[in-house]
Design a protein that fits this description.
Blueprint lengths: L10 E3 L4 E8 L10 E4 L6 E4 L9 E3 L9 E14 L9 E3 L13 E3 L6 H6 L2 E5 L7 E7 L3
Parallel strand pairs: 2-4
Antiparallel strand pairs: 1-2, 2-6, 3-4, 3-5, 5-6, 6-10, 7-8, 7-9, 9-10
Length: 148
Amino acid sequence: MSSNFFGISKVKFTPEGGLAVRVLNETGGPSIKGYIVEPGPSVDNSAKYTDGGDVDPIGVVYDADVPDGEYMWVVVSGIADVYYSGNDVVRATFSRVPTSGEALPDGHAINEPLPSPPFATDKHFQEIGHSLESISAPGLAKTILHFN
């Protein structure tokens, strides 16, 4: 892969309005669009799916079916399609990585009203952004991303 910033790039804007970067897929299988990722544990410049309770989400997979060990696009800012399970998604609410007690699959997101103390502080570091549309979960919903 070229390091040319404007040729074969490591960064791009998606048609949905997201800023995406290229990282190696270290998920253990083909990438799944909308899954939340964190830095990969074994390889530089890689990403893996978040586990329940993780506090270091960095982005959302943009490409589906990229083989493990290959480069995939990950949306790190702006708008992304995020995969939610658990609660139905209500637009303009809080989106985050599940807590360890919520028992959802790795990489899935959960949506809820803004948490109140004492959970507001803990969940703040699991936040990925705010939903822009309402859907019945499970499924993809447009979400404006920001990470804490």
